[in-house]
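In this section we walk through a basic example: taking a raw amino acid sequence and producing a predicted 3D structure, encoded as discrete structure tokens. The instruction is simple. Fold the sequence below.
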Amino acid sequence: MSEGLLSAAGYGLANVVLALAAAPLCEGIVRKVTARVQSRKGPPVWQPYYDLLKLLGKEDIEVGESPSMQRFAAYLSLGATLTLAALIPMGGRVPLDGWADAILLVYLLTLCGVSTLLAGLAAGSPYSLIGSSRGMMTMLTLEPILAVAVIVGAIEVRSLRLDAILSASLFAGPGWPLAGLVMLGVMVLALQAFVERVPFDIGEAETEIMEGALVEYSGPKLALFKYARMVRLFVYCALFVGLFSPLGQGWIYPLGLVAFLAQTLVLVLLVTLVGATHARYRIDQAIRYFAVLLAVSVGALLLAAVGM
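The resulting token sequence is shown next.
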């Protein structure tokens, strides 16, 4: 049992290292492709690595109503995201399949959003409070969609174990269930919002509320939040692949990793193209959009419950 735990922990650590190393590169690809779509040259794909190093080297200036809460929120943001990375398969087995389940996964997904809300509330700036309120409204309508997707996968395999749910449980069988197809469509339409990219970057909206919840942050704490956002893009794409794509499932590790990275790159490019060609939604427009997706996802949950 101890050997199994050590093996699972090793896979989890490998996923964390992969996420930390690849996330800034994904961000660099997003910036470069966005610039090309908009007929600009754009920065080099390595620029996010330089940006993080520059922020980490700056002085950590304490500005806000609760500096200790600001520090806690910064650590929580990256820590929750990396813990999530340690639970999701990235070209290999599910790391902690026997020691974690879908309930923990849902809690961690929610905690990633809560950390940003805490950051805005701790700063106390009018702009940060507006960003936090927008983030709270978004989270209340958006996070249940992801929870429903995980629950639908659990219903299909009759288990809460992550190794069953995150092995393309919705499409791993001989047939493609209607509930799975509906949830696939919902998740494609909601992916842009989960990773907080245009047109759903409403909580930070630079041209309106100057970075929103993070307006009072600089230096290392800002680096942690920026790093967490980059890792979140990579991790949510990995979660999407684990839930819906059977390609690469069960392959030996090097080949499975290549298949996973290729699918992740496709999702990153999809997010980039949508962000580069759409204008930001207003908060009321986004809430209505999420409400429709939530209603459709509940319908998919009912279909899964009756075996369709």
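Looking at the output, two observations stand out. The chain has eleven helices and no strands. The CA atoms of residues 23 and 234 lie 6 Å apart. In the next section we compare this with other chains.
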